[in-house]
Structures are given as structure tokens and as C-alpha cells.
Specification:
single chain, 199 residues, mainly beta, lipopolysaccharide transport protein A fold, disordered N terminus
């Protein structure tokens, strides 16, 4: 691989990690930046005059600051600028990012699994589909559904056919005994990955 191609691949990876980190989650404290690394069995980059497509296949692992993504295949489409005759052009903005096959995204205490994760940077949204599950290990909440859409900057999540699991809620009925003292701290419940129901 030529040094120019290596440099552009590193630039592409830095942009990918930045988008995944900012679109999927807003963690309260920013950890110290670490280098972005992409590993896969194969990486193919192709360009037209207007865009570059990168396709990483086979045991894909993308790691970076507060982020680890594993999947079978990762596709990134970015607009390009500069010399249109260059084999791999200078990347400008992401148009689309797609992770497929055994997708797992981990950020801090949050984790998601699905068979398909799509990032639409221009719309500031991520769509998880094909058995999506999001787990917040810090509080034991689990969200699953047919499709989960996350909107960056809005703290908004749209879940089609949702199934939520969370910590137990105490007895709130009128006949419940009154609490005499603050309850002892308990650990978060064990988290199970729910399976979508057959339709």
C-alpha cells in the first residue's frame, strides 16, 4: 500500500470513528483520545470523481476513543474533493456508513447489538435493525424492538414494536407496606439479550 493510500485510509478511519462516536452516544465525560484502528480480512477502496467507497470485510474491528465496533462488513461512502485523477481522493464528508452481520457497538457502559447499523450523517441519525438491542449496563435498562432509530443532539430514540426491561419497581399499590428506612443499595439486574418474538 502506498504511503498516500495509507494516509488517506487513516484519514477515512478517523472520520468514521468521529461520526460513530458523535452520532450514537453523548457520554458525559470525554475520555482521552486514542488512535483509531481498523482491522479486517480485506479493505477495498474505490473512487469516482465525486465519492469514495471503502469496504472492509471479514472480522471487522474498529476501535477508537470510547468506541469499539465489531461486524462482518463495514461500508463507508464519503464525498471527495481535490484531484479527480487520484486513485483515492481527499475525503470531505460522510454520506453513509453501514455495518452488517453480527454488529456490536460498545461505548462506555452502553452496548448495542444488531445485524444492521446504518449511519446517516446528514440527517444526524443511526438506524439499528434486524434484531436490535441496546443495553445500558450502568442502570440495567434494555431496549429492543423491530427497529431502533437514534437522533443525535435530540436525546431522542424511536423504537418500532418496543420491548423494554429495567430494574424492578417497588410495590406502588395502596395496600403496600410503608417503607420505614431507605432500602439497601442493590446491584443492577443481570441483563439478558432479548430475542425478537416470532410474528
Amino acid at each position: 500500500m502506498t504511503s498516500l493510500l495509507k494516509l488517506r485510509t487513516i484519514t477515512l478511519l478517523s472520520l468514521v470513528i468521529g461520526h460513530w462516536s458523535s452520532v450514537i452516544s453523548a457520554q458525559p465525560a470525554s475520555p482521552a483520545p486514542v488512535p483509531t484502528e481498523l482491522r479486517s480480512v480485506q479493505l477495498v477502496m474505490t473512487s469516482t470523481d465525486d465519492e469514495t467507497t471503502a469496504l472492509a470485510t471479514g472480522n471487522v474491528i474498529l476501535t477508537g476513543t470510547n468506541l469499539r465496533i465489531t461486524c462482518d462488513q463495514l461500508t463507508v461512502i464519503a464525498t471527495r474533493i481535490g484531484d479527480k485523477t487520484a486513485t483515492v481522493g481527499t475525503l470531505e464528508k460522510f454520506k453513509y456508513i453501514l455495518a452488517t452481520g453480527n454488529v456490536r457497538i460498545v461505548q462506555g457502559d452502553r452496548e448495542s447489538t444488531s445485524q444492521r447499523a446504518e449511519v446517516f450523517p446528514r440527517e444526524d441519525k443511526v438506524v439499528l435493525s434486524e434484531e436490535p438491542v441496546i443495553i445500558d449496563h450502568s442502570n440495567g435498562f434494555v431496549a429492543a424492538g423491530e427497529k431502533i432509530t437514534l437522533f443525535r443532539g435530540k436525546r431522542e430514540v424511536l423504537v418500532d414494536k418496543p420491548r423494554f426491561t429495567g430494574p424492578p419497581v417497588g410495590d406502588l399499590s395502596a395496600t403496600a407496606p410503608a417503607k420505614s428506612a431507605a432500602p439497601a443499595a442493590t446491584s443492577a439486574p443481570a441483563v439478558m439479550f432479548p430475542k425478537p418474538r416470532a410474528q
